[in-house]
Amino acid sequence: MYNFECNYDEKERVWTGAKQPIVYDFNCSLGKIIFNNLKNFPKNVCQVSDIDGREVTNGELLSWSIRLAQHFKKMGLRHDDVIGIVAKNSTYLSSVAVGCFMNCTPFHAINGGFDPVTIQTLFKNTAPKIIFCDGDVYEKVNAATRSLRPLFYTLTNHIDGVSKIEDLLQPTPNEYLYQPEPLKLGGAQTVAILCSSGTTGFPKCVCMSNYFLQMDNMFVTSHDVIFTNSSLDWMTGIFLTFLSSATSCKRVITNRPYTPEYLVELVKKYKITYIIAAPRHVATLVTCPTATTDNFSSIRTFAVGGGCVNLSTLNRLQNILHNGIINIYYGMTETGFVSVNSGDQNLSSVGKLFPHIELRIVDEQGKNLQQNEVGEIYVKTGHTWNGYYGNTIETQRIQDSFGWFHTGDMGYFDDESCLFIVDRKKEIVKYQGMQYWPSEIEEVIMKMPEVEDVCVVGVYDEGNGDAAGAVVVRRKGAQLTEQLVKEYVAKHLTVTFKQLHAGVVFVERLPENTNGKTSKKEVKALFATN
Questions:
Q1: Quick one: which of 298, 307, 302, 344 has its CA closest to 326?
Q2: Which of 109, 116, 163 lies closest to 142, judged by CA?
Q3: 277: in domain
Q4: In the sheet that 225-227 helps form, which strands lie side by side, from edge to edge?
Q5: Residue 521 falls within a domain, yes or no?
Q6: Which of 176, 193, 218 is the last residue of a domain?
Q7: Among 190, 218, 246, residue at a domain's last position
Q8: CA gap 447, 468 in Å, rounded
Q9: φ/ψ (deg, to 5) at 7
Q10: Which structural domain, as residue segments, surrounds residue 191?
Q11: Can you give the three-state secondary structure of 17-47, one letter per residue?
Q12: Whole-angstrom distance, CA of residue 399 vs CA of residue 282
């Protein structure tokens, strides 16, 4: 288990996570780690699908993954090739990922909800030789990648005339002698490629190294039942795929879209003990009538990551988790996990640094700041990052020549070396020359009992700058008007420049990108049409 002590160098003004031995050999491939566990505990159930009830044992996952890895090797796929994945969670998806890990061929996973132009641009960059996809997105993905001429295999909703994954899962004569391929480039070798969140622009292809995913058990044992809505196109989806196959815990999967009511059903049905959820999902969960302490009594750990969460939302969640704790993670796809608040009473903090992580708080002149001073968060992992695939310029923008990632997040450390996130640097806006953070206004609005969710953005006004505007999701049956929201903000934030000068728009749900994050671009567009 990780030691989350955090040391502060007062002279250099740099915070450092604890030094401790790594769990696995740095240069040991994920494929080898998973292979050993699956082989040692073949009868353990590592996955169950809520779509068809299909349970998968370690032994089955091992056999399928070996056969896929053998096929990849027979095709001549190496560490410098790419395999594409466009699929929701399904029975065979984990074996595709594990097969890639065993052959040390990276996969590039993208969300099927992307438009054809985005799919074309992303896959043109990585040029996958094979693409595994669901049948319902085959036509779109095939049209977008026609110039690449990849081989296609469908995972679900098979199509006549298109190969399916079952074609690759037939027993082979020598599968019992199989051994995973070693890493050619060591622990820093790229094993997966994900898309950046794309909340403010076009997604980039983020290289994830083998060591990123060599995580400790992270509060999970073989007795746990784990769940996340994410598929392989999101960091938490890959992380839980590794956890279930490397620690023999059971993972619940589904391809149904998230609703709070459905999550409650899954927790009750499978006695889920460990959840990773996005902030947007938590916001709707805490207002769900069936999300009670009784229905969530099996939960030991409820992890939240992928964005900022209002303190009032986290407090509501803690009230539901009578037997569980909240883990709040901070990190980026580019850096991996940076910090975690594990069960701390101060839920507004993202906690202490992970081992070996270095972090400093920097002002606009590049000067390191001390405790309780807000600046941009710079992170150093101490290991090589392979950058954005095929995009040297953007790589150099986010990571400087000294290895520091310029996260674009604003934050500070308190006197106890706990990290706090204030907002995104790009989200800092000015009204009449005065600077404010939208998250501060969101925090106030979320305290209103009638509010389920909110997003505040700066709406440009030529005379004054960026006027604050709120897009609000009301709770069911709530009678809430624009004037009431404005008056509530004015009462709790008395300065003029933090008032809702751009107004309030009410919607049924906040607009999201394909990864479930609120789309600021679409939120701003709502003010242009109202």
A1: 302
A2: 116
A3: no
A4: 55-57, 45-49, 250-253, 225-227, 274-277, 301-304, 325-332, 336-342, 352-353
A5: yes
A6: 218
A7: 218
A8: 18
A9: -105, 145
A10: 27-43+57-218
A11: ECCCCCCCCCCCCHHHHHHHHHHHCCCCEEE
A12: 31
| Rounded (5°) CA angle 14-16-21 | 155
Does 236 map to a domain? no
Phi and psi for 205 in degrees, rounded to 5?
-90, 110
What's at 6, amino acid-wise? C
Residues 285-326 have pLDDT tens digits of 998 999 999 999 999 999 998 777 888 889 999 999 988 999
Q: List the structure tokens of 222.
A: 């073989």
For strand 358-362 and strand 352-353, is the pairing parallel, antiparallel, or unpaired? unpaired
In degrees, rounded to 5, the angle at the alpha carbon of residue 235 between the alpha carbons of residues 231 and 240 is 65
Per DSSP, the three-state class of 528 is helix
Cα separation, 317 vs 196, whole angstroms = 28
- pTM comes to 0.84
Going through 462-529 in order, the beta strands assigned E by DSSP cover: 465-474, 503-507
CA angle 429, 433, 435 (to 5 degrees): 35
Express each pLDDT in 434-458 by its tens digit.
Answer: 778 888 899 899 999 999 999 998 8
The enclosing domain of 451 has a CATH number of 3.30.300.30
Q: Considering only CA atoms, which of 261, 238, 264 is closest in space to residue 251?
A: 238
Q: In this structure, what are the phi and psi dihedrals at residue 133, rounded to the nearest 5 degrees?
A: -145, 165
Give per-residue burial for 62-84: e unless 16+ CB within 10 Å, then b: bbbbbbbbbbbbeeebebebbbb
CA gap 462, 128 in Å, rounded: 46
The total number of structural domains in the chain stands at 2
Q: Where are the alpha helices (DSSP H) in 453-507?
A: 482-492
CATH of the domain at 157: 3.40.50.12780
Each residue of 468-487: pLDDT tens digit? Answer: 999 999 998 899 999 999 99
Sign of CA dihedral 199, 202, 203, 206: negative
